[in-house]
Design a protein that fits this description.
Elements lengths: L2 H11 L4 H13 L3 H8 L10 H14 L3 H12 L5 H18 L4 H14 L6 H14 L3 H10 L5 H15 L1
Helix pairs in contact: 1-2, 2-3, 3-4, 4-5, 4-6, 5-6, 6-7, 7-8, 7-9, 8-10, 9-10
């Protein structure tokens, strides 16, 4: 009997043991069995518990790896709404931002709002530069210069990239 089979049997008889469910889901993730991750960790998302945020993060990664971007966005959105583990929140929010950019389904205001929030919450992370670049690129592609300028003002400590974008926005507003 493998450890997975032992965990599965245990969970069948003790479905309220969140720690075991979580460990089984992570074990599936480490074995790249993403469909099993989704099935297992989804059991932890019905109620508030200490594993829910991390479960949503693993679910987001698993959905992404199975090419279900909508499922990934939903899971990341749930993980980033939880403040219990800021590292998990940052990871979820970064992945959500990348998916927002790739999906191109959000309006300018919604898209830049997500980026602004990330930059203001996590200005010194290794991913902040990437999000600053996404935000600046959003400014460069919009014709709504007033909304872009308002967005720059919402960023607490704009990067050089955003300040450069602000200059271009101001120039475009003036011409």
């Amino acid at each position: 009997m493998t450890s997975h089979q032992g965990f599965q049997q245990y969970i069948q008889y003790s479905a309220d043991d969140n720690r075991s469910i979580y460990l089984l889901g992570v074990s599936y993730y480490n074995k790249k069995q993403y469909a099993d991750v989704i099935k297992t960790l989804a059991m932890l998302t019905d109620e508030v518990n200490e594993y829910a945020q991390s479960a949503y993060l693993y679910l987001g990664h698993s959905y992404l790896l199975t090419n279900d971007k909508n499922g990934a966005m939903f899971a990341y959105e749930k993980a980033m709404a939880d403040d219990s583990d800021l590292q998990a929140k940052e990871s979820a929010m970064f992945n959500y931002c990348v998916l927002v950019e790739e999906s191109n389904i959000f309006t300018f205001d919604k898209k830049v709002s997500v980026y602004e929030k990330y930059i203001n919450l996590f200005p010194k992370t290794s991913n902040a530069e990437t999000i600053n670049q996404l935000l600046a690129a959003s400014y460069y592609t919009t014709k709504n210069y007033k909304a872009a300028l308002n967005s720059v003002k919402k960023v607490n400590n704009p990067s050089k990239e955003l300040l450069k974008a602000k200059q271009i926005i101001l120039y475009n507003l003036g011409t």
